Amino acid sequence: MVTSSTARKLHLAVAQLGPVQRADSRKQVVLRLLELLKDAASRGAAWVTFPELALTTFFPRWDMDDSAEIRAFFETEMPGPETRPLFDAARELSVGFYLGYAELDGDRQFNTSILVGRDGTILGKYRKIHIPGDAATVSGAALQHLEKKYFAVGDLGFPVWETPDAKIGMCICNDRRWPETFRVMGLQGVDVVMNGYNTPSGYVQWNEPIHLRMHHHLLSLQSAAYQNACWIASAAKAGVEEGSPMIGGSAIVAPTGEVMVRTFSEDDEVINFVCDLSVCEYYRANIFNFAAHRRPEHYGLILERTGAGAPLARP
Length: 315
Ligand code: CDT
Fold this sequence. Notes:
The protein is of the alpha/beta class.
């Protein structure tokens, strides 16, 4: 499929975070992120993916009404004084990164990630679009997931950035479950999608067995990477945060749909893999040659409908 003469190598790392408790300061978390960044750089990685909402505990598990209490979880500037060391380290080590955080933009609150280049400057920003969970407490539920209360729907779409190394896109947690997320980036020729997530293993408000949490996470990444001929680097915040368990399973997935490397722990852990970007081109030139095989004239319902409606077939 790929020969050494056509290979286009890019060394990616994923930096999984173990739990972040409410009492942990930004400074403490950034020190952990710096250790992970240095570990990735020492292995030769050029880009590192950090998790969603990496700077704080996963606060949407709580129903809060006090605005000062809520806003304590949000960043008003990026970089700010506590996060600047990450940008300095990126420049010194020549390692780019993806970082997820809660963003306060005026009065608007977003679940955001940024792409920071190997020179330590922000290349781009994306805001989570498929916001999961509820806007108000669900009575009787053992666990709450109130992202709809705290975050507006992202307004920046799913852009892809052309960096000197690769075409890179971003995706946050629940957005990875939706094929539209990846197809929009696939149509921009994306090579690498970076994804951060916090997936509670016990959020169930319906009778779905818990083992399916990991299955659906990997299923989403593997199918998206294959169907869009891209690499995916996906980073969890894992372990037991404030009594709430979250899955690990951070992974680097190839355009073949195969998981090439995966975390072992539910704690701070780096995984890395030397990815061959020419595999993307190989799939794009064959089975997923979009220009040759896609039939958008038959995809109208995707834009016309949000929820499922009546069947189109007529007798
Ligand atoms: N953070 C996040 O998006 N978590 C979701 C769980 C949603 S269940 C209400 C996820 O897709 O993993």
